[in-house]
Design brief:
Blueprint: E1 6-10, E2 17-23, E3 28-33, E4 38-43, E5 48-53, E6 58-63, E7 68-73, E8 76-81, E9 87-92, E10 101-107, E11 113-118, E12 126-131, E13 137-144, E14 147-152, E15 158-163, E16 168-174, E17 181-189, E18 196-202, E19 208-213, E20 217-221, E21 227-232, E22 238-244, E23 250-255, H1 262-267, E24 274-278
Antiparallel strand pairs: 1-24, 2-3, 3-4, 4-5, 6-7, 7-8, 8-9, 10-11, 11-12, 12-13, 14-15, 15-16, 16-17, 18-19, 19-20, 20-21, 22-23, 23-24
Amino acid sequence: MGQYPLQNVLGARARLGEGPIWDSSKSLLYWVDIYNHRVHQFNPATGENSFFDVGDVVGAIATAGADRLIMALRHHLAFLDTQTGVVTPILEIEGNLPDNRFNDGKCDPQGRFWFGSMCSLEKPHASLYRYDQDGSLHVMETGLTISNGLGWSPDQKTFYLADSPQQKIYSYDFNSVTGNISNRRIFVDLTHESFYPDGLTIDSEGHIWSAMWDGWCVIRFNPKGEEILRIKLPVQLPTSCTFGGEDLQTLYITTASVGLSQAEIEKSFYSGDLFALQTDVTGLPNNDF
């Protein structure tokens, strides 16, 4: 796999590309540029990319039926109509915490939308939430700094969550019926490294692929938390990844350029672009809200 070529499939130059999801029904990749308030729609077959300006910081998205996405904005959940671009607010959360904003999120196999917040590093009061189809909101975890990189094992028994500044990926027991998580433990400890775990995805073999912010790479971990593959990238700030394509064997990787100095950008010229890697493993299908 390390010999497969990495392709730069879109010269997006995003400030903070994130949250890629594959819509198999339309063969499209959706992804966000958080600080530019954009939800992008990329067609790999044509190379065409378009975007919706949603008018606010957008940290995470998930498909929510035909022609609709659910979004975690700065302090709101909202729906986006992908035919008209109309944004429909759902509810406000953490409006009393102006320094917080929502970050990564995705749906579990039962269609519940999970999303987390991030806060200033001095005050670890970010949280992880679950929004159910009946409109109920549940606080799933507290005391986080940057809730990031979440996913579920193929057998739906384990939930994964990264806290980026803590340089750790945690695993939890997951009850697929109730949606509850318990028994948090450290899955991967990266405190000996100079980079941070960002967004992640999980393949059909139960391996975790984590984008490493400030690490120039994506790392694949086995279900024991052992590194088994490191994919080097030509950019400093990989942010997230997901499997797509007709066979779910193409790993799409989002990246960022925010905060880089001119000298760093010269070393990492393609920062903010969208990359793709053809693999010999299959990802898990996207979960719809």
